Amino acid sequence: MADPVSAVSPRGLLIVFEGGEGVGKTTQWRRLIDYLEQIGQSVVALREPGGTPPGDVIRALLLESGHDLAPATEALLFAASRAELLSRSVLPALARGDVVVLDRYLLSTYVYQGVARGLPMDGLRSVNQFATGGLVPDLTLLLRLPLNESLVRTRERGAPDRLERETEAFHAKVAAGFDASLAAAWQSQHPECGPIEPVLATGTPDEVAVRCISKLEQRWPERFGHTAARIV
Ligand code: TYD
Q1: What is the extent of the structural domain holding 116?
Q2: Higher-scoring residue by pLDDT: 9, 168
Q3: Is the CB of residue 128 less than 8 Å from the CB of residue 43?
Q4: Residue nearest to atom 14 of ligand 1 (CA)
Q5: Which of 47, 69, 104, 141 to mutate to test the pocket of ligand 1 (most atoms within 8 A of CB)?
Q6: What CATH number should be reported for the domain holding residue 170?
Q7: For residue 47, how far is its CA from the centre of ligand 1 (angstroms)?
Q8: Whole-model pTM above 0.90?
Q9: Burial degree of 71 (CB within 10 A; 0-12, 13-18, 19+)
Q10: Which of 81, 89, 223, 232 has the fewest CB atoms in 10 Å of its CB?
Q11: pLDDT of residue 227
Q12: What strand order describes the sheet that includes 99-103?
């Protein structure tokens, strides 16, 4: 089996957004895509679960169907949607040298299905190694907001999906799982997740967008250096 660390995207960049419900992740995902396009990067915007015709069917089954899925079924369906998205969209884009900005990836599985549902991490790791071929993100931006604030935002949005309807205890485990992934020891034990950077998600969308762009500037100064101030 290929070493996941050596399977980092060969030419393009894979940037992932992660975080619990209601942290403003999708807004920031959109903002970063707009910014990258403005500075002339070739960008592909994708999200999980879904993003492909079969993946959208899986997404509906996972989030909207009303079926009560066993935790293992849930994990396998997320992995199946991921496999489809990678082979159809992510890998071809990376091979072209594009920047792929992905709304959720492997870390969501580790946190939601591993930490919050309690599925064994070894199983999740091997299923996802199989699904992804070991593709490691170049950077994950983890948006962070106090749990009570994010739960209020989720409630205000209305029409909750199957996972948003989970208990507060479940969402507390999700938040704790994401927090744990920021520790250096956790990241060295999970090299398949790549580097994970925290981004404070309080304040205006503009303020959060600047924080996200700064993370790219810090990591790739030649490619993104000092562009945030010009754009946002
Ligand atoms: P989505 O509507 O995309 O919401 P969000 O804006 O929160 O990303 O819903 C995706 C849901 O699926 C979200 O509750 C997180 C969950 N999820 C998992 O449980 N495991 C996974 O591997 C992924 C990718 C998502």
Answers
A1: 4-220
A2: 168
A3: no
A4: 163
A5: 104
A6: 3.40.50.300
A7: 9
A8: yes
A9: middle
A10: 223
A11: 62
A12: 43-47, 99-103, 13-18, 139-144, 196-200
